[in-house]
């Protein structure tokens, strides 16, 4: 007895002609979602200090206090108007 060779379209899965519903109506939407997933994956791999929208960071007060107890700082060279940790800072001299 010879077996009949079926083409993939003749298999029961494809006989009805129905396919799974589309997730995106247009390829533009699919591509936009792909770019968003790629952007999110890239962001997830970055370290936490690279995720800020600004490059201005303030030293945490508890960390500064421990270092200040050991080294007795007198000048804060990286200070800005609102976050100076010492009595003297560069922002008073127009540098910061």
Q: How do the helices and strands line up, and which of them pair or pack?
A:
Elements: H1 12-15, H2 27-45, H3 61-71, E1 75-76, E2 88-89
Parallel strand pairs: 1-2
Q: How would you characterize this protein structure?
A:
With 96 residues, this protein is mainly alpha-helical. The protein folds into 2 domains: 21-51; 53-96, no CATH class. Helices cover 35% and strands 4% of the residues. A two-stranded parallel ribbon has the order 1-2. The longest helix has 19 residues, at 27-45. The radius of gyration is 31 Å and the shape is rod-shaped. The model is unreliable at 92-96 (pLDDT under 50).
Q: Return Rg in Å.
A: 31 Å
Mean pLDDT: 76
Strand ordering within the main sheet: 1-2
Strand content: under 5%
What is the number of beta strands? 2
Oligomer state equals single chain
What does the main sheet amount to? Answer: 2 strands, parallel
Report the helical percentage: 25-40%
Poorly predicted tracts of residues: 92-96
Q: Separation of termini?
A: 91 Å
Summed up, the domain count is 2
Reading the helices and strands in chain order gives HHHEE
Q: Give the overall shape.
A: rod-shaped
Counting DSSP H or I runs of 4 or more residues, the number of helices is 3
Structural category:
mainly alpha
